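Why this split exists: single-chain examples teach little about how molecules sit against one another. For that reason, every record in the complexes split bundles all components of an assembly together and asks for one structure covering all of them. Below is a record exactly as it appears in the raw files.
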Amino acid sequence: MSIAEQGVAIAEAPSDDIVLDVRDLQTYFFLRRGIVKAVDGVSFALRRGEVLGLVGESGCGKSLTALSIMRLLPKGSARTIHGEVLLNGEDILEKTPNEMREIRGRKISMILQDPQTSLNPVFTIGEQLREAIFRRTRGRTREVMREAVAALRRVDIAAPEQRLGQFPHQMSGGMKQRVVGAISISGRPEVLIADEPTTALDVTIQLQYLKLLKRLQEETRMAILFITHDFGVVARMCDRVAVMYAGRIVECGPVDQVFDNPSHPYTQALIASVPKMTGSTERLYTIEGQPPSLMDLPVGCRFAPRCPYADQRCLAAYPPSFTVGAEHTADCWRMTAA
Amino acid sequence: MKRYIVYRMLQGVVLLCMVATIVFFLGRLTGNPVDLMLPEDATAEDRVSMIKALGLDGPLHEQFLIFVNNALHGDLGTSIRMRQPAVEAFFDRLPNTLAIIPWALLMAMVIGIPLGVIAALNRGNMIDRAAGSVAVLGIAMPSFWLGILLIYVFSVELGWLPSGRMGGPAHYVLPVITLGAFLVAGFMRLIRSSMLEVMESEFVKLARIKGMSEAVVVWKHCLRNALIPVLTLWGVFVGNLITGAIVTETVFAWPGVGRLTYEAVIFRDFPLLQAVIILKAVLILSINLFVDILYAYVDPRIRLA
């Protein structure tokens, strides 16, 4: 079989090999003022070698979903109270802290949003990479350092030997984020969560970084959960997309299907509000109103108060997931009519 | 860096001038040393001649000018009581003080830093409050009282440790504890607050994402960053110890510069008092400068700036 044929085979028949399966995840903040239902019943599955986009506006629970999966919630008030996170079929929410530590970095890893603060300012890049590589290989210093150089080269850092001895403040933001990437994937994880990895970067290097991530993903066949608020990035990076609103996924499906046939009014509104470069746009489209307070969620559909199509049914009960097309679902009562 | 050091030294000189002026006039507010030196039956003539011999007869501003002139020539006068050049007296005693200060500092750090880390890790619960209480105890107990208490328990009652004077290692234990206790709280509270800040950092999250153990995350990634503000205050702490030594050395009859300062005040030994205070100021200023230079080596971000 030629390489081209293999490529076609992979593209045409996405394996059903699910590596990460999140089921009905609920993470709440327990505050004195009340309970903030930041993640309230999130379910999705991630296949091996797939890039799944998780899209939504700020505060909809994207990052907290990621931290719940990593079990790195901010200490204190936040707790995952319900759900399963199955990694290769095993629920990692059930693991002991020690077992979880073994999983982090090696099975599942994460790139954080802000490269300026993601690296420890008092250690060299080399030391921060060494720690991560040594954990996997337990090799001799020289071998670990050779791998560190290779890891930096893989993320397109020039003169990696010299960079190893440098401190984070001696590098640009884009370069730091590539180092963070190198560190995050140095344990050869099966799943990488990228939490808005390009949001803090200059527009000019955002594209560069996305291409790098895409290339690394193709080389390693790791699955990526790509968190973003940018539909443009979704179109470029992802195979499938899940749209999140007020702590829940409201629509999920292959990227082209969701773009061609957005079925949830919120998805439609989001796509409509992406500025288009073609045609004469008079005004930017905006969604009226504000997302509901996560402390006081409506009984019915959470988007209903802002939805132009909302009726009695929407206010009365939260809609189930309706199938729109192959692998394409939307949580909207209007789907029953179709 | 060179320019910075020169600038700091000039700053130090200005500060020293102010210290010298203040100690000169403040010392003279305490009264006349002659009253303490002469026997009760001394005549008025004896008194006058003694005042003249000590150079205390002219108007205050003239005395000050003489003092400044001599000081500029490197002469800080002769101790009235010890009849020894004041500078020499200071340097004779200095090694004895320097023999306890590093131990006190070490003790304060060895107890205070882990206590601060543990308090930060247990923020808000019983352990945090217990650690805080231990630290506050160190501040709340005045050195003279703690010193006497320790002497009472360990020397008088239990007879385990000597109550004072210099000697073998056992002689160091009580003075070091008394001197260091006061700083434990300083280190503890500083480390606690800077740890709490550092633990929220994204780089700590990344260390956990890498799968580092809690011990490495806390004691390496967090503590190294949390130590930076401590180092900044290191100079201040050493300064505290040098001043704190006055009480501790007096309680334990320890022949260091602290006790020398105390004696100079009690006997109104003006030249000695002036010399001791000025030389201590020089010492503290030098340590602070040294620490600031050291700081640049610990925090790489400052090194290049």
